[in-house]
Predict the structure.
Amino acid sequence: MTTRRRDAGEAPRQEPAAPPEAALTIDALGRKCPIPIIMLAQQINDVPMNATVAVLADDPAAFTDVPAWCRLKSHHHVGSYELPQGGWAIHVRRNY
């Protein structure tokens, strides 16, 4: 195991916060991009404004493509959280 010393003035690393509660979970596990994004685009309007949608995905492209889609569509990428079985829960907050 490798340890890394903190530089003077560097903030201590914090463990990632627990994922926020999702109003809707989209299970896109086992599906290749762009299917997770298509599923998100079709269903994001099913939740109220400022609600969070969790996209479960294991395609590595989804890890970068969903946050990029959020920037393009003016939604907020809350965070991506590793799933115990592999993949991520990518949380998106609906902005409009």
Observations:
- Confidence is low (pLDDT under 50) at residues 1-6.
- The first helix runs from residue 35 to 43.
- Helices lie at 35-43, 60-73.
- Residues 73 and 95 are 9 Å apart (CA to CA).
